[in-house]
Structure formats: structure tokens, C-alpha cells
Amino acid sequence: MVRPAGFFYAALMPSVPPCAIVIYGASGDLAKLKLIPALYELLREGLLPDSFALVGYSRTKMSHDEFRDRCREAVTTNARSAKSDAVDEKLLEKLCANAYYHPGGYDDLDRFDALKAFLEELDEKHGTQGNRLFYLSTPPSAFAPVVSTLGERGLIVRGDNHESWQRVIIEKPFGTDLATALELNEQLLGVLDETQIFRIDHYLGKETVQNLMVARFANSIFEPLWTYRYVDHVQITVAESVNADDRAGYYDRSGALRDMVQNHIFQLLALTAMEPPANLDAKSIRDEKVKVFRSIRPIAPREVDEHAVRGQYGPGEAGGKQTAGYKNADGVDPSSQTETFAALKVYIDNWRWNGTPFYIRTGKALKQKLSEIVVRFRQPPQTLFGKTCETPVFANDLIIRVAPEEGMTLLINGKVPGGQMQIKEVALDFNYSETFNKQPPEAYERLIHDAIVGDQTLFIRGDEAEAAWRVIDPILEGWKKHAKPPQEYEPGGWGPKASDDLLSADDRTWMHDGHDKDAVIACATHVPDELM
Ligand code: BG6
After folding, report:
1. Is-contact 32 67, C-beta < 8 A?
2. pLDDT grade, residue 515 (50/70/90)?
């Protein structure tokens, strides 16, 4: 197939095989907001196969035409390109002409059998050749039953070495603790080989997150410094201004640690901290990430308050929305201890990161949407400039920006023009959309495409999910049995005071508000002996 110069693909991209994509949970929000728009973008970029079919499956009753209308609306309102360009009506009609709907329950054997027959008809009609990608965007309780029924009714055959292939994308959350993740892995592996399981974490599909590997391993200037010798500490912030009031039913059973830390933030942590992989293939990269999780120093449940902070937003306003406070949201038990904010200090006990803290935080109803990784290098020696210069010499920061805009900034010391020796912190900036003059693709575009071509690099392996839960479980246990209750915080700020205290106990501060000068000055830290 002839492909136009894609947005993220070089000439070496594998060709995209024919296939049918079945979305379980097709009437839900994820399908409308992300999945169907992503399929349209892939079609636009020439990255969907010519022979494809889309089948929506969920419990809601709907005709094929009603589903097609939903697809049209989803694309018109939510597609990335539709925000700047007119929707390409021809392509949208092509997507709709290949789209079908098949209502059914998640345990309805007859409907699974009917789906099998229907997919075989579509093989004839659209040339999809028996290849199937099942996207499970269902409540998590349906993951195992759907997969086992797909296997039992012959919609999935184990293994990747047949004439046709069947793969399953599993949405998050992957378990709610180690025991449930182990059980889910066992259930999935009862039907599928690991090569057929694509556990999604949409953060891995974000362009900057992949750029992190390029920054680290395709440049020679960072890697030699990327160790405890030169890095003072690392901060990972994934802040959101939205509150959890509208999703309290789900959120109250989850909380920030399960919803954001075990998956998204730990993936950012692993890619920041891992060793250079032997190769860029799925096995090599995932092996290195697992090693990071296995090297994280366990947090003893009894000592949880020394390493972890939890908070809950009270009444107030964030992101232009008023809230009566988390405990007063519909569906939340007024005595709920579910955290809407979490901050951790973790150590990675390996050769590279000996003694370097990684501070991470995430929360709802905070000041702004901001996702970034800050690598704070050690303070340079003050001996030279300290004598002649009134201004301080700053520690350098490398800021990897994931949201709201994608890019990287390196903060360095520069001389202020003039007769006096004055130093100012200046930024070397790379902004993805300015440099490349285009918006980066949405994470789901990349990930759906990779699943169709069978590339698992940007998906979570089973043992990786388990290793991440092994770190989280003792914290959850500590919070349940030994910790102080969540500290209330005012919406529109940066979370509870205890989060600031976590860093100030180490003479450090969070880098609030992006490049906050005061924070940078205040953060001046230890100079290692060998650099004095
Ligand atoms: C989801 C979480 O996985 O990620 C949400 O369940 C969160 O609570 C969302 O809002 C954040 O994703 P993004 O891409 O907007 O940072």
C-alpha cells in the first residue's frame, strides 16, 4: 500500500494488514472522544488498511445507521484535525461505509456466536481476512469474561502463527492491586499468548513520552550526566484542573494512586530512569522498564507517611468550575478516604540512581493542567561567580513537557548584558508544534496503529503491570491501616501542604507554575564533594 509521508512514521514502517476492529463498549465516552476520532485520523494519514471494517459492540440497542451517525458526530466534534481543518467528508463517508453495530451483552453467548458469523460476512465483503483487533473499552469487570467467551466461541485462536491473527487491547485499570492483576493476567493467558495482549496506557502513545527516549539515547550530551552523580533529583508532575465530581462513581473506588500513579506516572518514571535498552524492540525496552520497578525501594506500610502524601480537595473553584468538595460529590461516601491527590518520594536502588530521589505528584482540581518531568541537575560550584556576582548561580533543569504543550526546555545560566557580572536563568526551548509546524498526533492513533501491525513496544507487558502493583500495594496498605487521613486542599492550588513538606524536609521545593523563578532559586541544593 502506498502511504503518504506519515506524521510519525519513516519508510521502515511495517505495512498495515487488513483487519476488522471490534470495539467492545462502543456506546461509551472513550469510543466517542478518542477511539473513533483516532480511526478517522489514521484513515486520513493512510495508516488504516484499505481492507478494514469497524464493528461497535455494546449493550445499548442501536442500528448500523444510528452507529454511523454517532461516528460522524464523534469525528466532527472530537477529531484532532477537525479543530483546524474542515472534516474530509469523503474519508468520513468511507469510515462510515465500513462501520457496523452489533448489540449484545458481555456474557451473551448467542450474541458472540452471531458476531462470529457477522465478522465472517465482513471478511467476504471487506477482505478483512480473519484478522481481528478486539478493543475492550468496557468496565474492567468485563475484561476477563469477554476474553474467555471470545476464546470459547472460537472468535480468538491462541497464538500469532496462524494464517490470520486475533489481538486484544485491554483498557485500564489493569487490576486494582497485585492480587487482581495476577488473576487477570492468568485469565487472559488462559486464552491468549502474551503476544496477543495489548495492555494500553495512553501516556505511552504521547509524542513527548516517546521523545524522551530519543532525547536520552539519540543525543550524547544528556546520557553521561543522567546519573546520581550529576542529577540532584527528578520531579514528575501530572496535575489536572478538572475535578472528579462527575466521575465519582468510578473514582471513589480508585483514587489518584490507582488511577494515575500505578500506570501513567510510573511509565514516565520508568522511561526516565531505565538503562539504555539493547535494542528498540518491545522485549528490550520492556525488560528495562521492569528492572526499574523491581529496583524501587519498597515503602513499608508503617512508614508510609514519611514517603507518601494523600489529599482530598475541599470546596472551591478550579479550572473555572465550582465544587462543593470531593466528599460532597454525588456518589461519594461523606466519610470517603479516597485520595484525589497523591505525592510520593521514591528511590531507585540501582547503580545509576543511588540516593537520587524521584518526587512524583498528581491530583484533581489543581491550579492547571500540567504534565512534566523535571530533571534537576546539581548546583554548580559557587566559588567563581559567588565572589563577583550578586545573583545566584542556578541549578540547571531539563524540563520535559508532556501537557498542555509538548516540548523540552533546558534552563541554563546566562550573563545579563552590561558591565556588571550578573547571571540570569535563560531557557533553550523546543516546542513540538512550533518546530514541526503541526500538532502531534493523539496517543490513541499511534497505539491503535501499533496494535494492528503487532508492535507491542508501547504497551504494558503482564509482568510490568505486576511489578508496578508490587510498589503500590504497600502504600495502599499503609494508607488503609497506619496513615493520617487525606489532608484537605483548596481547589485551584498545588495540593495539600503536606506535599510541599515532603520536599522541604529535603531542602527542596516543587517547581510550581512551570518555570517559576522563586521556586528555582529556593531549590538550590547540595553540591557533591567531587564537584567542589
Ligand atoms: C485517565 C484517568 O487514564 O487519564 C483520568 O483515568 C485522567 O482520571 C486522564 O483525567 C488524564 O489523561 P490526559 O491524557 O488528559 O493527561
Report:
1. no
2. very low
